[in-house]
Specification:
Elements (H helix, E strand, L loop, with lengths): L1 E5 L8 H7 L3 E3 L2 E3 L5 E11 L2 E10 L3 E5 L6 E9 L3 E5 L2 E5 L6 E5 L4 E5 L4 E10 H11 L5 H5 L6 E5 L3 H11 L5 H25 L9 H15 L8 H7 L4 H12 L3 H19 L4 H7 L5 H12 L3 H7 L1
Parallel strand pairs: 1-6
Antiparallel strand pairs: 2-3, 4-5, 5-12, 6-11, 7-10, 7-12, 8-9, 8-11, 10-13
Length: 324
């Protein structure tokens, strides 16, 4: 297993260190890794003073243990992660699977020490935004009202500010970005636009809803376990509320109340939302017919699948296929 140890920051001083850890080099805005460690693109860019974006589209050649221990505590890191396989994230004695069907949206305070495990052959597509807290504070006060702004920029030691799943709009924006050839002004413009949209959507969300500051609370950990169970069984029938609340070790009423409070959705809506995201991915793979996808995901029939898909995405499955 290859161990890589480094730190991020909201400046660019970390890029050369990461290149060295990867037995590689820097060419313009690309970190070139040794092909014995990983292949693919690592692109970084300064968007403005105190805001750095890091584009990561690679395949691991060897098992990797990535240790992140930041030297600066003046920024937060916002991660949008798409991965073919799970990687393991460890922090503060907790362990989470992250990836396409696990938690794929993280906001972490720079004080947090973390460890990632990535298996050989695993493909990771991720976008990280490193933002100085002074920039967030200035931006938030001029454009949005944050009832819990101080908790966001001054969270407790070893605090995950948010661990969640991306909404569909964010997933689609990232997919469109990762289809582009890396490098050049066109790519940079798309990257800037994607970052602005992703973070603007997040700010709008938290400006109207209390920011969840996540700690080691056992109830929250149990809700995370229930969410992962639903996502891991997304191609099955909806399990009963009783069975999921048992997984969360809660009464049905408490589980449903906390689930909606933490995710913003009812259990049923959360399950259907993710099932439709899976349906969209299967349509994009273009290997199954609409009827076959309907059967695979256990919709009542193709008509029910089509109407539910259109209600969610504004387009029928067959029309969506024609646009691919």
């Amino acid at each position: 297993m290859k161990t890589i140890s480094f730190s991020y920051s909201a400046d660019l001083d970390w890029t050369s260190v990461l290149a060295q850890q990867l037995d590689g080099k820097i060419e313009q805005n690309l970190i070139i890794s040794s092909e014995t460690i990983s292949t693919g693109d690592r692109f970084f860019m300064k968007l403005q003073k105190g805001v750095i974006v890091y584009y990561h589209n690679t395949t691991a050649v060897v098992d990797m243990k990535i240790i992140q221990k930041n030297k600066s505590d003046d920024f937060i890191a916002v991660y949008y992660i798409l991965a073919e396989k799970y990687s393991k994230y460890l922090s503060n004695d907790f362990s989470y699977d992250i990836g396409r069907w696990g938690n794929n949206f993280l906001i972490i305070d720079s004080k947090m020490e973390s460890t990632y495990y990535i298996k050989a052959g695993a493909k990771t597509q991720a976008l990280a935004i490193f933002i100085k807290k002074s920039v967030i504070k200035s931006f938030a006060k001029t454009k949005y009202s944050f009832p819990d702004l101080d908790k966001m920029i001054n969270p407790p030691q070893n605090s995950i500010i948010r661990l969640d799943r991306m909404n569909n709009e964010s997933v689609q924006e990232l997919k469109d970005l990762f289809k582009l050839k890396v490098g050049g002004r066109i790519f940079e413009l798309h990257l800037e636009a994607t970052v602005e949209l992703l973070f603007s959507n997040y700010l709008k969300k938290v400006s109207t809803k209390r920011t969840i500051i996540q700690t080691d609370d056992s109830d929250f950990s149990n809700i995370v376990a229930a969410k992962l169970y639903l996502v891991n069984n997304i191609e099955e029938h909806f399990p009963s509320i009783k069975s999921i609340s048992n997984i969360a070790n809660m009464s049905e009423s408490k589980f449903q109340h906390l689930f909606k409070k933490i995710t913003g959705k009812t259990v049923n809506n959360y399950f259907m939302h993710n099932k439709l995201i899976r349906a969209k991915e299967l349509l994009e793979e273009n290997e199954l017919t609409v009827s076959e996808i309907s059967d695979r995901l256990h919709f009542t029939n193709s008509s029910h699948f089509a109407s539910t898909f259109k209600k969610h995405f504004g387009i029928l499955p067959k029309q969506f296929i024609k646009q691919l």
